[in-house]
Amino acid sequence: xxxxxxxxxxxxxxxxxxxxxxxxxxxxxxxxxxxxxxxxxxxxxxxxxxxxxxxxxxxxxxxxxxxxxxxxxxxxxxxxxxxxxxxxxxxxxxxxxxxxxxxxxxxxxxxxxxxxxxxxxxxxxxxxxxxxxxxxxxxxxxxxxxxxxxxxxxxxxxxxxxxxxxxxxxxxxxxxxxxxxxxxxxxxxxxxxxxxxxxxxxxxxxxxxxxxxxxxxxxxxxxxxxxxxxxxxxxxxxxxxxxxxxxxxxxxxxxxxxxxxxxxxxxxxxxxxxxxxxxxxxxxxxxxxxxxxxxxxxxxxxxxxxxxxxxxxxxxxxxxxxxxxxxxxxxxxxxxxxxxxxxxxxxx
Length: 348
Description:
The chain has 348 residues and is α/β, with parallel strands linked by helices. It contains eleven helices and twelve strands. It has helices at 13-24, 39-47, 69-73, 102-119, 159-177, 205-213, 229-241, 259-270, 284-293, 314-320, 327-341; strands spanning 4-8, 28-33, 56-60, 78-81, 123-127, 141-144, 183-189, 191-193, 223-228, 249-252, 255-258, 308-311. The strands form three sheets. The chain has a seven-stranded parallel sheet with strand order 3-2-1-4-5-7-10, sandwiched between helices. A three-stranded mixed sheet has the order 8-9-11. β4 (78-81), α4 and β5 form a beta-alpha-beta unit. α1 (13-24) packs across α7 and α8 (259-270) packs across α11.
């Protein structure tokens, strides 16, 4: 019998691709949704990549509530906890209350771990964020690895970064006191781009969608470590099955690119389809003034202006033989996929 994997949040961008790839590799998959109404959308999205018939089922469970998690983990071999509670996506507009996002992120992770360890699953792989292994906001340069932990008490942290850090810390603290067969691993991605399964896609992909639409007057001086969603899913699956991955953190970032570099790749690679992509770089002062007086959502990105902090993925490459696609391939595949789906940016 094929092994069964529980994927939390199958309706999400990473979750949907995780479900599709697991099915493509022959696994049986169960995925959580917040309501039965989402089952059809997930099935249709996954069906654009692989036939899920007979090997995909659903469990209704919400990261903010206890109900449903015992049933969700029943009979599964592995758990891939890739879901984030509503609002904990890292995009602008996630809120300015430094504590509002912590409880759902942290408590959701602990609900998954309690259910998984009680059921004795083999391993849980949790999606954290590279932002949980980054220096303080005032640092503008440097390369870091998994041994660094973001300081959750840094007053300049945006709510998303603090929530992801505290959630992963709580998960490791829980596993440090656990005595049983379940193993634990975390994956820390950068900015996730690549093809979309549906038109209803937000998160990092919304940046490319806004560029294509011409909605951006220019690009801020912000850099991203871009990883292809397909490569990120592959890293999760390697972390799920490799004996060397037990008890480890793995950074899953990609090539660093300023948004101006992204714009250039899109303009040059898409031809006429990229004609609306902005090429003008906005002065930092203009972005800060807009954040202060016109668009409060921009306040979450201002700490990143001019920062070129990078992460090394040497650990994932050496222990798990992981590799990544070239940056232009990821960006152009993302853009053409968005154009095909006629996707629009998620409003913030």
